[in-house]
Amino acid sequence: MATRTKISVPEIIEKVSRLCMDANFNLNEDVLVALRDSYEAEGSPIAKEIFAELLENAKIARSCQMPMCQDTGVAVVFVEIGENIEITGGRLYDAINEGIRKGYKEGFLRKSIVADPINRINTGDNTPAVIHTELIPENYLKITFMAKGGGCENMSRIAMLTPADGREGVINFVIETVKIAKANPCPPIIVGVGIGGTFDYAALLAKKSLLRPLGTKHTEPDTAALEQEMLERINNLGIGAQGLGGWITALAVHVERYPCHIASLPVAVNIECHAHRVRTVMLGH
Amino acid sequence: MSNSLHLRTPLSNDDVVNLKIGDRVLISGIIYTARDAAHKRLVELIDKGEELPFDIQGQIIYYVGPSPARPGMPIGSCGPTTSYRMDVYTPKLLKKGLKATIGKGNRSENVIKAMKQYKAVYFAATGGAAALLAKSVKKAEVIAYHDLGAEAIMRIEVENFPVVVANDIYGNDLFKEGVEKYEKNEGDN
User: What stretch of H or E contains A272?
Assistant: First the structure.
């Protein structure tokens, strides 16, 4: 039997709490680069001023260690765990939620989770997280935290297209989604698209696609071309930063594809705002 | 922001008649915060003919649910939330004398019509610029609905709070006109 690598619950709690604060205070370099490029490229004076504000905002958030956006999000956590990893001193999901509880309290982050979608009583500590777990053969535990804002999440959509709708149908659905969203998801946005799988899996793919660093191309040329075409058509809409008109509505479009049923063509669009807060920690390697 | 107009609350008709969509404005004075849950309660009071927890005449409501303030700070990060969720409530508040709202995203036809009727404006603040906007807040105090937490109504004192006029009293809509200006038709490029 392979040696088991042990990772303790207190270590996970500490690391996850750091991820929550770090992601909310310090905008990632890939997003900063995209915002700087947009500031240079934008033709609308109002939108240009907004890009300047967002860059200044990122600077203040970093130096004052305060959240860049008051909506510090629902905690979405992607876990990759090696088959030979052993969690000691408790359970993994409990540790992740405890880390979020600690991070949101100590970081003065907003608690935005209600215990029930109908009765709507705030849980008071921003838990529970939405956690997706994948078993992997490698010997490590990788935890990726994403603070997902409510405004942009609300503008996301899913459709079960028919195979006849094809590539053009998929593109049209994505463009239509951005058009309906208009100013609401805080453009400039990042558009995550999941194509294929099943109803549920397409949505997961769309969210997962957002984890790829901005400014990187998809490894499959066909998908990269699809992303580029969608991005151009979205930016032709003229929605612009904050929806006040401009050339840059989206910073990027990310697409992930997966095999699907002969009868189906699921497509999910997960909209992300410019306050794109993602952080990863590797443990046990 | 250079070449910005300066406004001090409360606002009068004279203040809003000169505002046009696209104008950059720096607001100073007292403004009130309210979002989804607080709006529901305010409108319930109006419907029952009861008094509101603050005098709404000439005031500005800011759609925000701030993050918690660090010790020694007046407020946490405080960028605007999406305004359309308040659209169902806004006309009743405008009728009561509310002069302006601040949020992000476009307003419904009904709200735009009501703004024209009651001579009120809608300002867009930059969504996600929450740390920057917090710098303009000098004081903050919860004045109603403590139980709502981040959704409680606060009276906040702001200095040079930066916004853009998105809807003026003449029925103009920057969200519509701005987008039309920068839209490229398929095949243009």
Answer: strand A265-272
- Mean local confidence (pLDDT), B50-76: 97
How large is the average pLDDT for residues B76-89?
Answer: 97
Q: Do A67 and B84 make contact, defined as CB atoms within 8 angstroms?
A: no
Whether chain A has a CB inside 8 Å of the CB on B79: the answer is: yes
Count interface pairs A-B at CB distance under 8 A.
Answer: 162
Instruction: Characterize the bridge pairing of strands B60-62 and B100-103.
Output: parallel
Tell me if chain B has a CB within 8 Å of the CB of A156.
no
Q: Among this protein's residues, is B6 annotated catalytic?
A: no
Using CB atoms, which residue from B68, B70, B135 is nearest to A110? B68
Region of A191 on the Ramachandran plot (φ > 0 left; ψ -120 to 50 alpha; else beta) = beta
CB–CB contact B128 A68 (8 Å): yes
What are the structural domain ranges in chain B?
5-181
* Choice among B35, B39, B99, B104 that is catalytic: B39
Q: What is the mean pLDDT of residues A201-216?
A: 98
Distance in angstroms between the alpha carbons of the first and the last residue of chain B: 33
Question: Which residues on adjacent β-strands are paired with residue B157?
Answer: B30, B139
Q: Is the pLDDT of residue B189 over 90?
A: no
Question: Where does B5-181 sit in CATH, by number?
Answer: 3.20.130.10
ipTM: 0.94
User: Which residue did the predictor score with more confidence, B129 or B149?
Assistant: B129
Domain residue ranges in chain A:
151-275
Is the confidence at residue B1, as pLDDT, over 60? no
